[in-house]
Specification:
With 512 residues, the protein is mainly alpha-helical. 45% of the residues lie in helices and 11% in strands. Among the domains are: 48 residues, no CATH class; 75 residues, Arc Repressor Mutant, subunit A (Orthogonal Bundle). It is built from 20 helices and twelve strands. A hairpin with a 4-residue loop joins β5 and β6. The protein is elongated. It binds zinc ion (2 copies).
C-alpha cells in the first residue's frame, strides 16, 4: 500500500485496522439554532473520511444525525424573545420561528440539507427525535439505567462534587407540558419509569411504548455508537478537555458498557471569522453559514478548503481579497493533478493529488477543465455590468464552470469586494482635462481607430504618447483611468481597454 499523507486517508487507515466488512462513519449536530460553518466541519470531516474509505475499496457509509430531541437551552440571538417559553422542550417539538417548516429543528436542518447534495455528499440523515419517539433505543436505555452506578463512577472521576445518589443518566420529557422539568420517582429495573413534573403531572410509563426518554448527551454517544455500529465520529475541540471533556468521558463509558474499543475519533478545531477569533456560536449570532459560503465559493472549493486543512487547525473562511488567492490555489492544485511534472517532491505531489480527488465532485475528466480566473472575471463582469451571457461570449465557450464561477464572482463583487476592486466603465467624460491630457487621449483614440493593435504594442504606445506630450507616464495612466472608470487605478490599462472593446472606448473618447 502506498503511504498516505492526506489527513482523511490517514484516518481511514486507522479505521481499517478495526478489520470489519463494512464501516460506519457518523456525525451529529444539535439544530439548536443556525447551523454554522463550525458545525459543518463536523459533517464534512466525517464525509471526507467516508470518501477516503470508499476510495480504498472499502464498504462504508456516512450517517449524520440531527440531535433534535435535545432540549432548547437558550434562545439564540436571531430568534424572538418569546421563544423562552419553549426552553426545556425538545427542538423537534417547538414551532418554526420563521413559520416555513414543521418545527424549529427542521427549519435549521433543512437550511443545511439542501446544500449537501450540491457538495456531492453521500450521506444518510437521521433525525434523533423520530428514533426516540419510536422507542428505538429502549434496550440501550434499559442498559444505562441498570448500569448507572458504573457510569456515575466514570463521570465522578472528573467532578469536584460527586453526582447525587438519585442521579439518572436520562431526561424524561413530560407528556403534558413537553418540558424536561421532571423527576424520576422510581424505576422497576425493566422498562417502567414513574416520573413527576413541575407542572403537576405524574405518570408511570413503559419506555418501549412511550418515547419521552432521552439519554443525557454524554450517554447518548455510547448508545448511538453501539446501536449503529459506528466506527468513526469526529468531535469538536471543546469536547476533548482532558479534565472531563464530554467526548473523553463518552469514550470511557462506551468501553465500560460494551466492552469494546470506542470508535476512532478525530478532534477538529474551530472555524473562525477572520480577524475575530474564537468559537462561532449561534446563540451569540456571530456565525457564517454554508449558504453564505456557497454564495461565493464553488462547492468543490468548499471541499477543497477542508480537504487541504488538517482538522486540528483553526482556520477562517475568507470573504475579503483572500477569496481570489483561494481560487488561485485551487486552480493550481488542479493543474498539478493534470500535469504532475509541476511538483518534484513525491510526498507533496501525492498529497496535492489526493486533495484534488477529494475535492472534485463527480468523475474527474480526462482533460483539465477550463479554468476561468477569478480575478479576470472580476474585470470582465464589471465591464459588462454583471451580464454573464456577454462574459461567456468572451470565452467563446458555453461552459458550466465559467457560468457558475461568474455568478459567484458577481456575488462577491456585490457583497464583499473592497472598493479598490470595484469600477464601472463610464459612457460620459465627466472630468476636466488640460490641453496636454486632451491631446494625449485623442492620440490614443486615433491609434485605436487606425490600427489592429495587440496588448503589448498598445502598452508601449502609452509611453510614447506620454513622452510626445510631455506628461509623466504615471500621470497619463491616472488620467486614462479617471476618464474610463472615474478612479486613479484599475486593471492593466492596455488589456483593460481591449477587454472593454475598442469601439466602446472610441465612443467615449469621441466626446473629447
Ligand atoms: Zn422554516
Ligand atoms: Zn409537565
Amino acid at each position: 500500500m502506498e503511504e498516505d499523507f492526506q489527513w482523511a486517508d490517514v484516518t481511514a487507515n486507522e479505521i481499517i485496522k478495526r478489520d470489519k466488512k463494512s464501516y460506519v462513519c457518523s456525525s451529529g449536530v444539535s439544530p439548536s439554532g443556525v447551523v454554522h460553518m463550525g458545525n459543518f466541519r463536523e459533517i464534512i470531516t466525517s464525509q471526507l473520511v467516508t470518501q477516503a474509505l470508499l476510495d480504498k475499496g472499502k464498504k462504508a457509509k456516512h450517517i449524520h444525525y440531527w440531535d433534535d430531541y435535545d432540549r432548547l437551552r437558550k434562545v439564540p440571538a436571531n430568534i424572538p424573545k418569546n421563544f423562552e417559553k419553549y426552553i426545556g422542550m425538545p427542538l423537534s417539538e417547538i414551532p418554526d420561528p420563521f413559520k416555513c417548516h414543521a418545527s424549529y429543528a427542521l427549519h435549521f436542518e433543512k437550511e443545511v440539507e439542501k446544500y449537501l447534495k450540491k457538495l456531492g455528499f453521500k450521506i444518510e440523515i437521521i433525525r434523533h427525535s423520530e428514533k426516540y419517539k419510536k422507542c428505538v433505543y429502549a434496550d440501550e436505555i434499559k442498559k444505562v439505567l441498570n448500569e448507572k452506578e458504573k457510569i456515575a463512577e466514570i463521570l465522578n472521576k472528573y467532578r469536584q462534587e460527586p453526582l447525587e445518589k438519585d442521579w439518572w443518566p436520562i431526561n424524561v420529557y413530560c407528556e403534558k407540558c413537553k418540558k424536561d422539568s421532571t423527576k424520576i420517582l422510581s424505576y422497576d429495573g425493566e422498562y417502567e419509569i414513574k416520573y413527576s413534573c413541575d407542572c403537576g403531572y405524574t405518570n408511570t410509563i413503559d419506555f418501549r411504548k412511550i418515547g419521552i426518554v432521552k439519554p443525557l448527551w454524554r450517554i447518548q454517544w455510547p448508545i448511538w455508537w453501539h446501536h449503529e455500529n459506528v466506527d468513526f465520529e469526529p468531535g469538536g475541540k471543546e469536547h476533548y478537555n482532558t479534565s472531563g471533556g464530554a467526548r473523553i468521558t463518552a469514550n470511557e463509558i462506551f468501553e465500560e458498557l460494551y466492552k469494546e474499543k470506542h470508535p476512532v475519533d478525530l478532534k477538529y478545531d474551530f472555524i473562525i471569522i477572520k480577524g475575530v477569533g474564537g468559537k462561532m456560536s449561534s446563540s451569540l449570532g456571530n456565525v457564517i453559514t454554508l449558504k453564505e459560503v456557497l454564495d461565493i465559493y464553488e462547492p468543490q472549493i468548499v471541499r477543497y478548503l477542508f480537504a487541504s486543512t488538517r482538522p486540528n487547525t483553526e482556520f477562517s473562511v475568507s470573504f475579503d481579497m483572500d477569496v481570489i488567492k483561494i481560487y488561485e490555489d485551487f486552480d493550481n492544485t488542479e493543474r498539478v493533478y493534470f500535469d504532475e511534472k509541476q511538483i518534484t517532491n513525491e510526498k507533496k505531489l501525492s498529497k496535492e493529488k489526493r486533495i484534488y480527488e477529494l475535492s472534485y465532485i463527480g468523475k474527474i475528466p480526462k482533460k483539465i477543465p477550463i479554468q476561468p480566473s477569478f480575478r479576470h472575471l472580476t474585470t470582465l463582469l464589471q465591464i459588462y455590468e454583471g451580464n454573464i451571457d456577454k462574459v461567456l461570449q468572451e470565452y467563446h465557450k458555453k461552459d458550466v464552470r465559467i457560468k457558475e464561477r461568474a455568478k459567484l464572482v458577481w456575488n462577491w463583487l456585490e457583497k464583499y469586494a473592497p472598493d479598490e476592486m470595484k469600477f464601472k466603465v463610464k459612457d460620459k467624460i465627466d472630468i476636466k482635462l488640460d490641453d496636454k491630457e486632451r491631446e494625449a487621449l485623442i492620440k490614443v483614440r486615433e491609434i485605436l481607430k487606425k490600427e489592429r493593435i495587440d496588448e503589448l504594442n498598445l502598452h508601449n504606445k502609452f509611453y510614447e504618447i506620454s513622452e510626445e506630450f510631455g506628461i509623466n507616464p504615471k500621470d497619463f495612466f491616472k488620467v486614462a483611468y479617471s476618464v474610463l472608470i472615474g478612479k486613479e487605478k484599475g486593471p492593466r490599462l492596455a488589456s483593460f481597454i481591449l477587454e472593454i472593446g475598442k469601439s466602446r472606448v472610441i465612443r467615449l473618447l469621441d466626446q473629447l
